């Protein structure tokens, strides 16, 4: 295990140090004192594991292909941007566009997320990306989603808090979204409909929530005791007739 004290380091210097250690065969890294440095884990092709103490900056794990990164705090915008493979675990909350255009890998977030989470998320060949959110989400969750799976749990909500904002799944034309509890149809994009999860869905959710509970030490059965709503697109090309007849 190698330890890097990131306090006071520029993002360029920090990322150069990370890559140098990985290139030299290191497969376990601990970063301490992280304070907004961007691009940590970006483009890394490795099975290495990285622990981050502090708050990483934008584009954590962007374009990454294989690592496991665990953040013991919050993270800023663009977590998992266009990631291809690997796992991101965030014990706090993340900001906007988490999982932007991701086409593989898994993201687990214990807290809340910002706006446009899962935007342009897609499946690619055998890959089926996954985002699991423990708290609530802002507007435009799953916007233009083309594939993959989003799971929103709404844990620890206050009585007057909504689990999600407006314009859920606007432009969605692939993939699936599971929301724990009831969702007001008024907040949904017109391209999606709410259905009851199938038995197969229930089995997959049990496995997904099991992984979530292991990462964050919460009781899976308590989460699964509450019913889920599944969102699916009406068709695969909701705007096709706007361009061709």
Briefly characterize the structure.
This protein is α/β, with parallel strands linked by helices. The protein has a domain at 93-242: Glutamate synthase, alpha subunit, C-terminal domain (Pectate Lyase C-like, 3 Solenoid), CATH 2.160.20.60. The protein has helices at residues 11-23, 199-216, 220-224, and strands spanning 2-5, 28-35, 49-55, 65-71, 85-90, 106-109, 130-133, 146-152, 174-180, 192-195, 228-233.
Structural account:
With 245 residues, the protein is α/β, with parallel strands linked by helices. The protein has a domain at 93-242: 3 Solenoid (Pectate Lyase C-like). 15% of the residues lie in helices and 26% in strands. It contains three helices and eleven strands; from the N terminus they run βαβββββββββααβ. The protein has helices at residues 11-23, 199-216, 220-224; strands spanning 2-5, 28-35, 49-55, 65-71, 85-90, 106-109, 130-133, 146-152, 174-180, 192-195, 228-233. An eleven-stranded mixed sheet has the order 1-2-3-4-5-6-7-8-9-11-10, sandwiched between helices. Helix 1 (11-23) links the parallel strand 1 and strand 2 (28-35). The longest helix has 18 residues, at 199-216. 43% of the residues are buried.
- What is the number of helices? 3
The whole-angstrom Rg is 18 Å
- Major sheet description: 11 strands, mixed
What is the number of beta strands? 11
* Overall pLDDT level: 94
Shape by Cα distribution: globular
Poorly predicted regions are none
Beta fraction of the residues? 25-35%
CATH architecture grouping of one domain: 3 Solenoid
- Class of one domain, according to the CATH hierarchy? Mainly Beta
Largest sheet, order of strands side by side? Answer: 1-2-3-4-5-6-7-8-9-11-10
> Structural class, please?
alpha/beta
Order of helices and strands: EHEEEEEEEEEHHE
Fraction of helical residues: 10-25%
End-to-end distance, in Å? 60 Å
The CATH superfamily label of one domain reads Glutamate synthase, alpha subunit, C-terminal domain
CATH topology of one domain: Pectate Lyase C-like
């Amino acid at each position: 295990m190698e330890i890097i004290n990131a306090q006071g380091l520029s993002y360029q210097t920090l990322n150069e140090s990370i890559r140098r250690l990985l290139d030299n065969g290191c497969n376990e890294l601990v970063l301490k004192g992280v304070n907004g440095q961007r691009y940590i884990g970006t483009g890394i092709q490795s099975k290495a594991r990285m622990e981050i103490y502090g708050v990483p900056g934008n584009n954590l794990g962007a374009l990454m292909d294989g690592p496991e990164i665990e953040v013991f705090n919050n993270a800023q915008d663009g977590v998992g941007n266009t990631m291809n493979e690997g796992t991101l675990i965030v014990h706090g909350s993340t900001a906007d566009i988490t999982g932007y255009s991701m086409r593989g890998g898994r993201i687990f977030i214990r807290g809340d997320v910002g706006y446009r989470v899962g935007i342009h998320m897609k499946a690619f060949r055998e890959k089926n990306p996954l985002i699991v959110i423990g708290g609530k989400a802002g507007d435009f969750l799953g916007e233009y989603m083309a594939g993959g799976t989003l799971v929103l749990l709404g844990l620890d909500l206050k009585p007057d808090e909504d689990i999600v904002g407006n314009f859920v799944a606007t432009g969605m034309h692939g993939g699936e979204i599971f929301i724990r509890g009831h969702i007001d149809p008024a907040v949904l994009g017109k391209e999606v409909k709410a259905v009851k999860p199938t038995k197969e869905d229930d089995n997959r959710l049990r496995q997904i929530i099991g992984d979530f509970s292991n990462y964050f030490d919460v009781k899976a059965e308590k989460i699964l005791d509450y019913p889920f709503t599944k969102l699916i697109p009406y068709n695969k090309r909701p705007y096709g007739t706007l361009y061709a007849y």
